[in-house]
Amino acid sequence: MSNTSPADSSLEQLPALVVSGLCQVYTRQQFGTRALAYGRRDYYKISLTTGRGRYNYATRGVLIEQPALVFSNPLIPYSWEPLSEEQGGYLCLFTEGFMAESDPAVRLQESPLFRLGSDPIYLVDAAQYAALSQLFEQMVQQLQAGAAYRPQVVRQCLHQVLDYALHLPPPTTYYQHPNAAARVASLFQELLNRQFPIASPTHTLQLRTPGDFARYLSVHVNHLNRAVRECTGQTTSGLIAERVVHEAKALLATTEWSTADIAYALGFAYPTYFNNFFKKHTGMTPSAVRARSGPSAERTA
User: Fold this and answer.
1) Domain holding 63: CATH number?
2) Which InterPro entries match (predicted)?
3) CB 126 within 8 Å of CB 67
4) Which stretches of the chain are assigned E, i.e. beta strand?
5) 66-79: per-residue pLDDT in tens?
């Protein structure tokens, strides 16, 4: 079972049926039978699928042999492995901000459909698929119509899909991957690298410790540490620190952000914590590295 399929970044190369701000809707026929792995975007995804295939997660997977409704959290890696030529249905991508426009208090991470440890795949029968298809078709039609109120209608449809799913029983036919350690280590590194580069001082790391990564991969932290050590020869903490130091050096060399801004963006509560961490791993202070990188002066924190 291969996990080397192209990423969802291929979405950028395919024509969207409809695009409205921070919400996009596609037909799955556009993707043919190509395998899709999780991409880097900050989009939540809802897929209404037909066709046989497997959804693969860190240590487990689900065999899909009937229509299904699939919910994907932006930070939980997965891949779809098609097992039949015909792959139908819809794919809706949206940000939390899009949904929050109608309710600023919305927290998708707290929804049972998206939160960690939830079962994101719901099998549906023919009647349920028909009802859900109508909601997706309504989103397509509203966005294509170009009406001023179309985002509100799309959000209403999305809320109906979410409510519908809460009454569906999740599948229980998960299977364990035989190469679980290699998959966990690979997905850990993918999650780690996906957080970089840091584009803004307000863009902070969401995953900073081995425990953070373990929760998003739905594995025990000890299992994650063993898998990473087995497959890379390095510790989980060591790989995280190495990547954070690399990014810190890049930010010091290429931006005029204060060390306080850089510290915050990299997940440190206080600049002193960042300074001590940086000096421990490089033998130099952030100010010294910046001074050696170019003429730009350190701004006041």
Assistant:
1) 2.60.120.280
2) Homeodomain-like_sf, HTH_AraC
3) yes
4) 18-20, 23-27, 36-37, 44-50, 53-56, 60-64, 68-72, 79-82, 88-94, 121-123, 174-176
5) 999 999 887 777 77
* The amino acid at 238: G
* Token representation of residue 235: 């510790």
74 closest CA partner among 224, 177, 184, 207: 207
Domain range holding 86?
A: 8-175
- CA geometry: angle 258, 263, 268, nearest 5 deg: 160
Residue range 119-169, pLDDT digits in tens: 688 999 999 999 999 999 998 888 777 655 678 888 899 999 999 999 888
Alpha carbons 269 and 40: distance in angstroms, whole number: 26
CB count within 10 Å of CB 117 equals 7
- In this structure, the answer to whether residues 127 and 192 fall within a common structural domain is no
pLDDT value, residue 114: 84
Q: Domain check: are 263 and 115 in the same one? A: no
C-alpha torsion angle, residues 138, 113, 87, 130 (rounded to 10): -40
Specify the length of the chain in residues.
Answer: 301
How far apart are alpha carbons 241 and 281 in whole angstroms? 8
